[in-house]
Design goal:
Helix 1 packs antiparallel against helix 2. With 137 residues, the protein is mainly α. The protein starts with a helix and ends with a helix. The protein is 85% helix and 0% strand. The protein has six helices and no strands.
């Protein structure tokens, strides 16, 4: 059940993160004013990614493959799920958290959009690089 929740919640996270990055780039390019909508969108992205992290950590430590991996060790077949995916997702969420924190200190709208575009965009690249696509489809 936890794996299913983690997989479906990932679609929500990706959709929200992609929308937030696109919104930040558009706001930056068109020199829009940073509004409460943009603020809430960044916050919603932060919250959904942190929820995904908690679900993922729960699944990671309760999964049957974790117990077998603990007993037999990590090999090349399970390295993506055991090491690369968790580390990159944690780094991505750290980037999102840093972007959220840094944008609050900015005064100009351009700086706020630039911070979101940079940090949330890098996080999106990290996430897309280590999604276990073969398990998803």
């Amino acid at each position: 059940m936890m794996k299913v929740i983690h997989s479906y919640w990932a679609y929500i996270v990706l959709a929200v993160l992609i929308y937030t990055v696109i919104n930040a780039v558009i706001g930056l390019v068109k020199k829009k004013e940073f509004t409460h909508k943009d603020f809430r969108l960044g916050l919603f992205t932060l919250i959904t990614t942190h929820i995904q992290l908690l679900i993922g950590l729960g699944w990671y430590f309760m999964s049957p493959w974790y117990k077998s991996m603990k007993a037999s060790g990590i090999d090349s077949s399970n390295r993506l799920l055991a090491v690369e995916h968790p580390i990159m997702m944690i780094l991505a969420i750290v980037l999102i958290t840093m972007g959220w924190s840094k944008h609050k200190k900015k005064v100009k709208s351009e700086s706020k959009f630039k911070t979101f575009a940079l940090f949330y965009g890098l996080a999106l690249v990290f996430i897309l690089s280590r999604i276990p696509w073969s398990n998803w489809f």
